[in-house]
Structures are given as structure tokens and as C-alpha cells.
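Table S2 (text version). Query chain:
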Amino acid sequence: MLFSFTNQTKSTILCAKEDSDQILGFICGSNETKNFYSQLLKRIPTLLIPLIKSILKEEKILKKIIVKSFSILTKKQANSNVNQHDFGEIYSLAVHEQASRKGVGSRLLNEYIKQEKYSSSKKGVFITTDNNSSNKAVIDFYKKNKFKHTSDFIQYPSRKMSIYTYHFTDKET
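Corresponding C-alpha cell output:
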């Protein structure tokens, strides 16, 4: 498994891929939301076009990305007891169905956390995810990876969402 790393002004994108270059999963996030999308647009030819070609072959992944993109664009600020300016945000983590439950997601998440801890002054990272019974496996995944439930909110029109936060510690390597 190989990891591709891109860090452009406080934004990070990691991809897990096989030696055959088939993408197994990816994670992306930023310490500074407003710059993330402008940097991502600048990198489209070198990063997103190969990723999109791979994703277009997989209808389920494409649907998840469209839903997540809409979610990001329409997200309301959550009422949280954590100051989100002190934390980087994970925008998306996805693993190919064939690589599911083989440690790819945890390796991506751990590598992302390591990169963010040593490249920023943030206290940790957070992710926003759906809070419903069909998303239990995702919520359990974040809990297993030491994320703590921070708050809940309703996103338009009636989508229940939760924020999970990971706090950096000195024990991580």
C-alpha cells in the first residue's frame, strides 16, 4: 500500500493505492477551510482528474462524494462546546468497498492525524458525520480510532449530524 501526500497551505490529501495504482481510499481535510477549496482547484489537473477517473467507475463511491460535497456546501455551523477554530477539519474519508475492513481507513486516518499534528498548531481534528442508525459502522469506526462525540445539530432540512473530535496528545508518533 502506498500513500500519496499533498500538503498545500494547511490542506492535506492522502490516497491509499495498490501497486497497480488502483485507489483503495482517500482522506482530505484542512486547518484552514477557506484556503482548502482554492488550493484544491489549483491541483485539479495533477490530483483530481486521475481520482475522478477511478471514482467514475464506482457508482456507490460517486454517489457518496456527491452527497458529501453537497453536505459540505450547505453545512451550518454547529453549536459545539469545542472551538472549531482550534481544530483542523476532516472533510472526507472514503475506502473502496473491496478494501473495506482491511485497515485501510484506519491507516489513512492515523497518517492524516500524524501529518496534521506535526504540521499545525491545532489541538486536534474533527469530522462531521450523519447521526442515524444506517451510519452506525462509521460512528463506531471513529470511536475505535479515539474520536470522541462532541455535539449534535440538525442540518437543513432535517438531517441529524454529529461532530466527533480527536485531541492530539504527546503519545502519538
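Notes on Table S2: Residues 2-167 form a domain with the Aminopeptidase fold (CATH 3.40.630.30). The first helix runs from residue 33 to 42.
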